[in-house]
Amino acid sequence: MDSISELALFQAIVDNGGISRAAVALRSSPAAVSRRLRQLETRLGVCLANRSTRRFNLTDEGLLLYERAVAILESVRDVESEVSSRGTVARGLLRVSAPSDLGRRRLSTLLAQFARLHPGLEITLFLSDAGVENMLDGCDVVLRFGLPGDEGMVARKVASSDMLLVAAPSYLERYGNPATPEALSAHNCLRLFRRHRVQGTWRFMHEGEPKGGSSDVEVTGTLASADGAMLREWALAGEGISCEAAWDVEEDIASGRLVRLLPSHPMQRIDLYVVFAPGNPVPPRIRLLVDFLMHEFGDALQRLEGRAGAGS
Question: Is 90 helix (H, G, I), strand (E, B) or coil?
Fold first, then answer.
């Protein structure tokens, strides 16, 4: 019998006023409770109580053990409660990385909300469109488009988004509206710079074909950036055509600041994943954030995407 169980048994005997009542409370038999008490006394080498059929009186040693047992068992319960609470409460430092525009426009608000729910948590947010990877960049949680290159990471899909070609009315007034994907070669296309190279290929999907299909269009332009938010800003300023996630430009399209181009030529969709390192168990601060984002962030993005699609 372990020491904590012995102390719990002794406290139950004293609190219930004797062996018989303790047996009822413990759902045991008086003989079993009496035997365990004798074993405790034998191990300690002292008599803990003077007992008869009518009385159960603690000896000095028994009183000392009872007082200490109560304090110890309370401490054990406090520790268990604190440790258990960590399964539902996030604490410590949490480093999160996300694409820049998505982080500024959507994630920042959600992280502030999550921090309010968990006052013991400190969150650091890194924004980058350079293709951040967990193990290489020292982040606990990464939101990224597409699966990570490191197969050892855990990746859960948060949401999917349509990719839309957009331009400002001022750009279209000067250079016209492309009628086909191939016509983009005559336009100034705003391109993303990622992992040391410019993304100069835009993929269009062929709907209606038996097995689907796609075609790639090579685009060029005078402006590129590793910051996706900058591409959107250039598009708003009339500098060129940008390929944007629906949730990043939904409000701009609704207000008329940007115009969707080639709506009958859908582009390849993108998947947003939340990526983190495996663990057994996964630290509560990571697990709770992932669950929070899956619910709050995913639902919000899907609603925005639905409105963008309805307005196209």
Answer: coil
Is the peptide bond between 281 and the residue preceding it cis, with omega within 30 degrees of 0?
yes
Q: What is the DSSP letter of 89?
A: S
CATH number for the domain that contains residue 266: 3.40.190.10
Domain contains 91: no
Cα–Cα distance, 160 to 163 (Å, whole number): 10
Task: Check whether residue 150 and residue 191 sit in a common domain.
Answer: no
The predicted model scores a pTM of 0.62
**Domain assignment of residue 275, given as a range:** 96-158+271-309
Q: What one-character DSSP code corresponds to residue 207? A: T
Residue 113 has φ and ψ, to the nearest 5°, of -65, -45
H/E segment holding residue 37: helix 30-44
How many domains is the chain built from?
A: 3
Residues 239 and 287 in one domain: no
Q: Is 176 exposed, middle or buried (CB count within 10 Å of its CB: 0-12, 13-18, 19+)?
A: exposed
* C-alpha–C-alpha distance, residues 205 and 243, integer Å: 14
Which of 84, 111, 139 delimits the end of a domain?
A: 84
Of 311, 292, 241, the closest CA to residue 113 belongs to 292
Residue 89 falls inside a structural domain: no
Residues 175 and 233 in one domain: yes
What confidence tens digit (pLDDT) does each residue in 247-306 have?
889 889 999 999 999 999 999 888 889 999 887 778 888 999 999 998 887 666 555 555
**Cα separation, 303 vs 301, whole angstroms:** 5
Could you tell me if 123 and 115 are in contact, meaning their C-beta atoms sit under 8 angstroms apart? Answer: yes
